[in-house]
Amino acid sequence: MDLKIKILKDRENNLIVSFPYNPQFVEKIKTIRGHRWHPEEKYWSFPNSNGTLEKILELFEGEKIYIDPAIQFEDLRKELVSRKYSYKTVKAYIYFNRDFLKFIHKKPLDVNDNDIKEYLVYLFEKKGASTSTLNQAINALKFYYGNMLKRKFVFEVKRPRKDKKLPVVLSKEEVAKILDSVDNIKHKAILMLVYSSGLRVGEVVKLKPEDIDGNRMLVFIKGTKGRKDRYTLLSEVTLKSLREYWKEYRPTKWLFPGPDKERHITIRTAQRIFETACELAGVKKEVTIHSLRHSFATHLLENGIDLRYIQELLGHKSSKTTEIYTHVSSKDFMRIRNPLDQMLEEKKSG
């Protein structure tokens, strides 16, 4: 079948539909609200409002259609943004929906339950996707096909069981080695904040100077995961490093600006800072900068801090998320006498 219908977007963000003259196509296109014919350019235009693209696709079902990738999920983007989803989530949802259609070679209205199952198998077996990635893919497809296109088949897809992996935790000695290996005051301040305040890497890079409350010894985290604000601890040693850093760099808009002072440093930059520090410190564990946050929580628990306070400091919505640190803490294990040591001691004394 020859290419008949093209759907593009103009500079004013309107949808543009063009096709070789066909009286049946013209009658169909006129049924869509807001249509406008442009005789010189020979195309139809429509306001790019929610549902318009789906209506066009429904009317021309069975025809070969080219859709500009930039607008294929514009309605999805608008809906997610209007619901205040984070930029990271919006990007991920659009990615999985585009990747899904690329995989199955179908239009959204032709998708069925089996297509989604095959896509999830493909992500797991061919791409090596983790359980969290599979669940995010399901959320992305469920939102678009279930919430927006009102298709029910998505809800029949069973979610994979979560991987029961424990976080890798650094010892206090290892954290000290990592921090001591960093000479750059800016890099040191970043790592010290992540550990001593239990921050996510996405939180530390977005900090502003006014978020550091030296009088109350608190760090203010605005619009964190789940769109909730919170306060967390500010270490005295970290505050001292931050003051040294401020005297040298004088940051204004962002506490840790990038090369362009109007933008904060990237997450990847912060990760590279941590990776370099681990190499210099000789830490061989498979850790990421997020391991500093895990270590902060574990060390607090080992110091006898109640899980409820740790949950509040980390910004966890559910206490079950925080409870994972009880499985990596050595606080209770230290009380257990190893049977081999006990056996050898008894043998010596006997």
As residue ranges, the low-confidence spans are: none
Q: What is the CATH level 1 assignment of the largest domain?
A: Mainly Alpha
Structural domain count: 3
Q: Which range best describes the helical content: under 10%, 10-25%, 25-40%, 40-55%, 55-70% or over 70%? A: 40-55%
Q: Any overview of this molecule?
A:
- By secondary structure, the protein is of the alpha+beta class.
- The protein has 3 domains: 5-72; 77-156, Orthogonal Bundle (DNA polymerase, domain 1); 172-327, hpI Integrase, Chain A.
- The chain is 48% helix and 8% strand.
- It has helices spanning 23-29, 52-59, 69-72, 74-82, 87-104, 113-125, 131-148, 172-180, 185-197, 201-204, 236-249, 267-281, 290-302, 307-314, 319-322, 339-349; strands at residues 5-9, 15-18, 36-38, 43-46, 65-67, 212-213, 218-221, 230-233.
- It has a 5-stranded mixed sheet.
- Helix 6 (113-125) packs antiparallel against helix 7, helix 8 crosses helix 12 and helix 9 (185-197) packs antiparallel against helix 11 (236-249).
- The longest helix has 18 residues, at 87-104.
- The N and C termini lie far apart (91 Å).
- The mean pLDDT is 85.
